[in-house]
Amino acid sequence: MTDDTTVPSRPARAGRGRPSVMPSGPYESEPAAERAARTLLVAFHGEDGRSKTFDFSKLPLPALRAEFAVAFATRTGVAGELRTLNSANSSFTILRRFLLFLATLKNPPHDLAALTPRHLERHRFHRMEAVNEHTAERDLSEIRNLLRVIQPDVLGSELRDHLTQYRHSTGLWKRQHRGGVSGYSDREFRDLMTAARSDVAAIRDRIDAAERLLNAYRTNPGALSEEERERGAVLDAMDRTAVVPRVHRDPGSGNWDHAAETELASQLFLTIADLPPLVVLAVGLSGRNVETIKELGAEHEILDGRAVRVHLTKRRRDKQHVHTTVLWEVGPHQSRQLHTPGGFYLLLHRLTARGRRFTGDTRVWSIWRGAGARSGSLWEKTAAAHGHRDPFAVSLKGGYELKAWARRHGLTADETDPGTGEPLPLLVNGNRIKTTVEVRTVKALGGHLPSASRTNTIDVSFDHYLRGDKTVKEWAEKVLDAALADAESSARAFHLRVLSGEMEQEAARAPEVVASALGTTAATLKSATAGELDTLASSCLDFDHHPDTGAECNVSFLTCLSCPNALVAERHLPALLALLDALQTALQELTVDAWIARHGRTWLTITRLILPRFTDGQLKKAAHNKPTLPPLDLLDGPKEPQ
Q1: How far apart are CA 268 and CA 211, in angstroms?
Q2: Biggest alpha carbon distance in the chain?
Q3: How confident is the model at residue 470, as a pLDDT?
């Protein structure tokens, strides 16, 4: 008898030697953008090892949530520009603030098609009630960046046109506003580094003393006093278990003394009070951004006992260059460990090694903070490690106070209080420390930026760390004044014809008189004032006859300002200011001597012979209308083959 009944087969079960069951048909994970639109949740996994889920369901204006969630997922995705948790947090905060503002309007946009440039501009003005213009424009720039990755057909035509405007799409506002912070004077920097070194030396000596006692307790306890053995037993337990014993204010009471507990922990571990001098000294020795220092990895390689190879994370670089490798000098002697970046790194690595045993972190930083009963995954991890943690795991702020540290050392600025005449407290800032190191490096290398820019590209070094520094300005002026002496003599050897505002008005009334004063004819002057004889940044009164050759002129546009045929009028000011910017940029790419030889006379002619002939109002007006010039190499004319 046959049984035609079909028995359903059971799915194959995984086991040793058998492959796991695979789903039938092709499988593709749901794209992040689609998942964000569906769930309003964006899971972020940064290249700095930090993760977070951003919830858009709680934001105002529900009709805008899904599109902005998709835009945010794109900006923070693997191909996006926001690849660290700090940048993602910043973008989300800016967007949340923008939507909260829109929700307060009498007629908020009901969807993205109703969003207009006027809404963005009103938000900028609203932000400027609480922050400066630079911060308000930075926030608006990020909102524009989010809007740009939204499908264009979702947006209104007016907003689409706004987003494609040059100044919004190229980051021009950044170049217009950035100028860097001023570094410290030699005296301020010396006092700052001395304070940091003395504290780091005390930290090192404190932990080394505990290390010696712990070693003695384990190897020869009989040689110790009873008090030393008791301390050694506590240190031994802390070293083995990571647990710092509770210290009670009163025996038998439940009140515990956190300050005393922290002091006990500090015998073997770093604490939050140790961070200010360690960070300050690290930036001051390496010349790296404070964010890069806080991201220092624990993995390294010592090369021949003379240098250490370390991998760095440069958070402000583009995605392809966010990681870099450096070689830091260690120094020939142990005494130099607080004077070389490699020596300091190895010291920091040793001081934090014990704490990292319990946290398992890959970054070099580790402090004991206590395992207080706080919520969140960070504190759960900290509690599991008995109070040990990477202080910069979640936020690069770290919770430490540079201001209080500087005040404790009595650090003062060169500036004084106008009322009392007393020195003002020194404000300690990581960017100012880096600026100071950049300035000192440039000065030591004679002003050659290509050689001095070790941690940044040349333009970043100049724009962010050198342009706004008062000490480098003073130094550069001295160098330039000395090197330009000969060029200035030659620049003043001829009398450039400048048609000031008053002369131009006079020319309209009496052209023959003004033309005679300028050594030309009334007809030529009329053509010049009409713009018919314009070259790059001046008018040429006799293009057909070069003063040296008598033939038609074919020399560099950059020599026009030193030519007797040149005439400069007010309408040339925008181009002259643009040319001045180009000359100053060229200084980044050349040695001072080479720059003087090539551009010194032109620079002097503009700054000392032309610009003083015009009013501040005329110059200010011209500064708002500067054109975009071709590269200097093109303006300089054809070159002879090398």
Answers
A1: 7
A2: 130
A3: 52
Residue 139, both tokens: 């926030």
527 contacts: CB under 8 Å, gap ≥ 6: 533
Return the pLDDT at 441. Answer: 66
Residue 501: Cβ-neighbour burial (10 angstroms; 0-12, 13-18, 19+): middle
Q: Dihedral sign for Cα 274, 279, 284, 286, please.
A: positive
Q: How many CB atoms lie within 10 A of CB 293?
A: 26
pLDDT, tens only, 473-518: 454 444 444 444 444 444 444 456 677 666 666 667 777 776 776 7
- Spatial CB neighbours of 330, under 8 Å, sequence gap ≥ 6: 302, 305, 306, 307, 308, 336, 337, 340, 342, 343, 346
CA distances from 202 to 116, 195, 530 (A): 59, 11, 74
pLDDT digits (tens, 9 = 90+) for 225-279: 999 999 999 999 999 999 999 887 776 666 778 888 999 999 999 999 999 999 9
Which pLDDT belongs to residue 556?
54
User: Rounded CA gap, 162 and 124, in Å?
Assistant: 15
Amino acid at 208: D
pLDDT of residue 1: 41
Residues 546, 553: Cα–Cα separation, whole Å: 5
Exposed, middle or buried, 281 (CB in 10 Å: 0-12/13-18/19+)? buried
Token pair of 263 as six digits: 């002091």
Q: Which amino acid is at 587?
A: L
Phi, psi of 499 (to 5 degrees): -95, 90
* b/e 556-589 (16+ beta carbons within 10 angstroms → b): ebbebbbbebbbbbbebbbbbbbbbebbeebbbe
Closest CA to 293 of 269, 266, 314: 314
Residues of the chain with pLDDT under 50: 1-17, 27, 166-179, 317-318, 320-321, 373, 445-469, 471-473, 475-494, 634-642
Report the C-alpha gap between 164 and 149 in whole angstroms.
12
Cα–Cα distance for residue pair 599/19, rounded to 1 Å: 73
How many angstroms from the chain centroid is the CA of residue 558?
35
The torsion defined by the Cα of 540, 541, 542 and 546, in degrees rounded to 10, comes to -50
Give the closest residue to 539 by CA, choosing from 502, 565, 570, 577.
565
Q: What is the pLDDT of residue 434?
A: 86
For 531, the 3-state DSSP assignment is: coil
| 308 φ/ψ angles, rounded to the nearest 5 degrees | -125, 135
| Closest C-alpha to 464, from 132, 183, 168, 188 | 183
Show me where the domains of the chain are located.
32-177, 181-402, 408-469, 485-635
User: Taking the mean position of all CA atoms in its chain, how far away is CA 633?
Assistant: 30
Residues 6+ apart with CB under 8 A from 76: 42, 44, 82, 83, 88, 91
DSSP letter for each residue of 196-231: HHHHHHHHHHHHHHHHHHHHHHHH-GGGS-HHHHHH
Residue 612, pLDDT score: 74
The pair phi, psi for residue 347, each rounded to 5°, is -65, -45
Strand ranges inside 452-572, DSSP E: 497-499, 539-540, 566-569
**Rounded to an integer, what distance in angstroms lies between the CA atom of residue 540 and that of residue 638?**
20
CA-based Rg of the chain, rounded to a whole angstrom?
33
Which amino acid is it at 215?
N
| Distance, first Cα to last Cα, the chain | 101
Residue 224 phi, psi dihedral angles, 5° rounding:
-100, 155
How far is CA 393 from its chain centroid? Answer: 20
Residue pair 437/284 in contact by the 8 Å Cβ criterion:
yes
